[in-house]
Specification:
heterodimer, A: mainly alpha, MetI-like fold, 3 domains, 70% helix, B: MetI-like fold, 2 domains, 13 helices, transmembrane helix (chain A), cell membrane (chain A), MetI-like (chain A), transport (chain A)
Chain lengths: 325, 318
Amino acid sequence: MSKSHPPAAPAARGRSTATQRRSAVPPRRLAVPWRRWRPSRAAAWLILIVLMLVTLLPFYWIVRTAATTNSSLFTGDQSFLPPEPTWVNFERVLGLSSTEEAMAAGGSGAEFDFLLYLRNSVIVSVLITVGQVTFCAMAAYAFARLQWRGREAVFYVFLAALLIPPVFIVIPNFVLLNQLGLLDTFAALAAPYFFVTPFMVFFLRQFFLGISTEMEEAARIDGAGHPRIFLQIDVPIMSAPLSTAAILAYVIAWNEFMWPLVAGSDESVRVLTVGLSLFRAGQPQAGPDWTGLMAATCLGAVPVILLFLVMGRRIVDSIQFTGLR
Amino acid sequence: MAIVSARAARQHQHRASSGWRRLRRSQGWVAALFLLPAGFGFALFYLWPALRALWMSFTDYNLLRRSGDFTGLENYRQLVDDQLFWHSMWVTVQYVVINIGMQTVLALAMAVMMDRLTRSVIVRGVLVLPWLIPQVVVGLLWLWMLDPRLGLVNHLLEMVGIGGQAFLGSPDQAVPTLAAINTWRFVGYTALLLFAGLQMIPKQLYEAAAMDGAGEWRMFWRVTLPLLRPVLALVLVLSVVGSFQVFDLVQVATGGIGGQPGGPANSTLVIYVYIFRQAFNFNQAGYAAAMSAVLFVLLACVTFLIMRSLRGSRSDLA
C-alpha cells in the first residue's frame, strides 16, 4: 500500500543538492514527518479501520447467529440484525431448557454440559496459573539473582526446551500419567504445565534482571535471607509483571486443546475446548445445529473477552515485551 | 522497611560483613531450593519424556499394550516409504508458506501503520483479540462463516457477484483457507510484536532520512526494515515454528461437520494431525514418536537457519 504514497512533506519540497535541502526545510516539519492530514494518511486510517472491522465482524456474527432460531437460519436470511432475536440457544446450551424444548429448537439431543466444562476449564486453568507462576518466579529468581556454578548452563537447558514440539512429549507424558493411574483427573490435566514452562521461566527472568538490586542489598545487609528477600521485596516490586504472567498463563491454559484431548476425555474432567470440539463432531451431517454451536462458541469466548476488557492494556503491553525480550 | 529495627541498626556494622559472606557461601543451596519445584517439573515433564520419546522412536511402542520392543531403525525406514507422511509434510509446508507469507507482510504493514498513526491501546487491543480466543473457537467460528450454503462469506461473495466457494470443503481451497484463518488469528499478535520493535528505532534516524529527501517507501526499506531485523527474526522463528505445529484448527475445522479431520481426501492432513492419528487412533506410538523426532530436528534446523540468515541475535543499533 505504501508504494502509492507521495513522499513525506520535507522531501516533496526542495529537491536539489543535499546542502540546499538541509537549509531550505524548516526543522519543525521534520520532527514528525507524517502528522499532517493528507490523502495517504487518510488511506492508511481507512485500511486500519477495515482491518479492525474484519477482526470484529466474525465475533459479531457468532452472537448474531446464536441469537437466531434454527428455523429462520435455514431460510437463508442474512440480515445484519437477527430476524427474530431469541435466548433459546443460550438457554439450551446452558441446560436451562428441557431436552424436548431443545430438540424443538434444533438441538441434536446430544448431551452438552456447558456449565460442567466451564467449571472444569476454570479449575484446570487456575491450578496451572497458580503453580506455574509461583514456581517459575522462584526459578527466575534463582537464575537472575543468585550466584552459583553452572547457572548459565542450566538456564540454557531450560531455554532449549522451548524448541521441543509439544507433540514430541505428549505421547510419553500420556504414558507416564497412565502408569501413575492419573489419566482423566484434574491432576493429569494440570501436571505438565503446573510446575514449569520454559517460556514462563524465560519471561520472568527478564523482569527480574530488569529490577534494581538496591533494595535487595539493603535487606541483605540487614540480615534478611533469600526466601525473605524474594517474598517481601521482589514479589511486591514485581507485582505488575507477575500479574501479567498470570494472565498469560491463564489464557494459554484456557486455550489448550491437544493435552486435555488425550489426557482428559472423560466427561467429568472434560474442559471447554475439548467439549466444543466433540459437540461439533457429534453433529449430524445433514442439518448441523449451528445456532446451538454458535451459542456455545460465544459462551466459550466470553471468559477470555471479559478478562481482556478488564486487563486489555496489560495484555497488550506484555505481548510487546515478549517482542523485545 | 520493617526489617530495619533499631537493634538491627546498632548491629549494622557487624552483620553487614558476616551476613553477606554467609549468603554468598550458601547461594548454591539456596538456588537448588528455589529451583526445586520448577526443576522437578522440568525433569519429569520435559527432559524425561523427551528422552523417552527418542527411545520410543526405536521401538514398536503401543499405547494399549503399554510396552514396546526394540526394533532399531525400523520406524525410520517405514517413514521413508510412507507416502502419507511425505504427503502430510508437503501439505504442512504449503500451509506454512502461505500462512507466513500473508501474515508477515500484513503484520508488517499493520505495525508500520500503528506506529505512524496512533498510540491507541484500543486499536492494538482489537487487533490482538483473536489471538486470545481458543483456536477451537476460532475453528468453529470460521467453519460457520465459511459454510458453503449458509455462511456469511459466501453470501457476501455472491452479493459482489463472485460465485459461492466451497472453501474448507474443496481439496484445492482447504489449505489456503486454513492459512487465511490462521492469519486472521495471528496477524494482530504478530503486528504487536513488530510494533514493539518499531518503538525501539530512534526517531532521529527518520528525521535524518527525511532531511536527505527519503520518502516513506524508501525509509521503510532503508531504515525500518534493517533496524527491525532482530525482532523480525524472532517473530519469524515464533510464527514459522508455531505454524508448522498447527493442530487444533485442522482438528476442528476440517472434514466438514461430523467428518474426519484432515479432509477432504487428506488434503489438510498436516503433520501434527497425522502424528496424532498414528499415536492415539492407530496405536502406533513408536512410529508417531519417530515422526515427531524428525519434526523436532526439522524445526531446530528451521530456527537455526532463520536466525542465521537474518543474523537475528545481533542488532545494527548497538
